[in-house]
Design brief:
The complex is a heterodimer of chains A (about 290) and B (about 55). Chain A is an alpha+beta fold. In chain A, about 40% of the residues lie in helices and about 25% in strands. In chain A, the strands form 4 sheets. A 5-stranded antiparallel sheet of chain A has the order 13-12-11-14-15, with helices on both faces. Chain B is mostly beta strands. Chain B has no helices and 5 strands. Classes of the chains: A alpha+beta (about 290), B mainly beta (about 55). Chains A and B meet through α1 of A and loops of B.
Chain lengths: ~290, ~55
């Protein structure tokens, strides 16, 4: 197949994908989004003959716009711009999960310090304040007291980008020192792992220790529902254990999988490429019918 | 194994054969983050600074 890879930085994840694609003899076109323009009637990027484009942009803003333009040229893109738009924004992500009946932490969004403080006091301490856009656990705050809340809200309102004036307040979930990352393709799990840390943030990017995890029926169902809720695609679904059940706190759309590949027995890039091949086959079948 | 010069300190870096344009590597001498601009021959430049919306 002819596959395009949108990027601006090649991480180990992209190297794994590129290596698997080339080993299978696919024709890969790397598209550095920094070097191209995307116009209303076309782009300088060589996308015309591609069966599918995979978005691996590291920057959320680039991911959102580049996928939207590429879809407008009639080229299939994964993940879709619709999925990217929901997953890129924690508030939209939370709404989509709740609307789909997926258990997710109680969340409130406020637009002023005063209103955010009311939300924080209503949750009680500790609670969590997150940026609506961001990754790798950056700028996440666990708030233990009113004085800490006042300081953080003041800093965010004064120093931050306008997005930091959208205050996303969430209940603190007492998880057992770990959360669960599931990589899924259209709701079908590829592999899962736990990320453990003594710190409340357990992200692999923060140095959380990883271990393979076997999903039970309930988790399998939640992963499928969470994937559907955001429009499907190649996704990282994050769950937390809540005693006898789970809560899904977010779904990631340009998911990293190098840690998962090293933690589980699953050949993650091979499974992802299997899925990409099925996406390209769907396009071929649709063209045959047209 | 190929070689290239660090754009920050000028040290010579040994690079893996499966180098990709866009890949980020660290200079073992000065610690700078470098981006692979070209692979044949390898050319390195200072990597872009981390931005707020980067991540998965």
């Amino acid at each position: 197949m002819q596959i395009g890879l949108l990027y601006s930085r090649i991480r180990k994840d992209e190297k794994l994908l590129l290596s698997e694609l080339r080993e299978r003899g696919h024709d890969v076109t790397k598209i550095d989004v920094r070097k191209h323009q995307f116009g209303l009637d076309g782009t300088t990027a060589p996308v015309d003959d591609l069966d599918v484009v995979v978005d691996r942009c590291l920057a959320t803003s680039r991911s959102l716009y580049a996928t939207r333009f590429i879809e407008s040229y009639g080229v299939p893109v994964v993940n879709s711009p619709e999925t990217a738009e929901i997953c890129a924004d924690k508030a939209k992500n939370s709404l989509a999960l709740a609307e789909a009946g997926v258990p997710t932490p109680e969340t409130k969004v406020a637009f002023t310090k005063e209103s955010a403080m009311e939300a924080i006091e209503a949750f009680g301490y500790p609670c969590v304040l997150k940026p609506v856009v961001g990754s790798w656990g950056r700028l996440m705050a666990k708030i233990d007291s009113r004085s800490a809340a006042e300081a953080i809200l003041e800093h965010k309102a004064t120093l931050g980008h306008y997005e930091h004036k959208v205050f996303y307040v969430q209940e603190f979930v007492e998880k057992p020192g770990r959360d669960i990352r599931v990589l899924a393709t259209d709701g079908e799990p590829v592999a899962a792992m736990t990320r453990s840390s003594e710190h409340w943030l357990t992200n692999a990017a923060k140095g959380g220790e990883t271990e393979a995890f076997e999903l039970d029926d309930e988790a399998l169902e939640l992963v499928e529902k969470a994937s559907d809720a955001v429009g499907g695609g190649l996704l990282g679904v994050d769950l937390m254990e809540t005693g006898d059940s789970y809560t899904v706190h977010e779904v990631n759309h340009t998911v990293e999988f190098k840690a998962l590949n090293g933690t589980t027995d699953v050949d993650v890039p091979a499974t992802v490429v299997d899925w990409l091949e099925s996406k390209a086959a769907e396009k071929t079948a649709a063209e045959a019918l047209a | 194994m190929t070689e290239a010069e660090c754009a920050e300190c000028g040290a010579t870096l040994d690079l893996a054969d499966d180098l990709e344009t866009g890949e980020i590597i660290d200079c073992g001498t000065c610690g700078a983050e470098l981006e692979v601009i070209d692979v044949n021959p390898p050319v390195l430049d200072r990597a872009p600074e981390l931005e707020e919306d980067w991540g998965e």
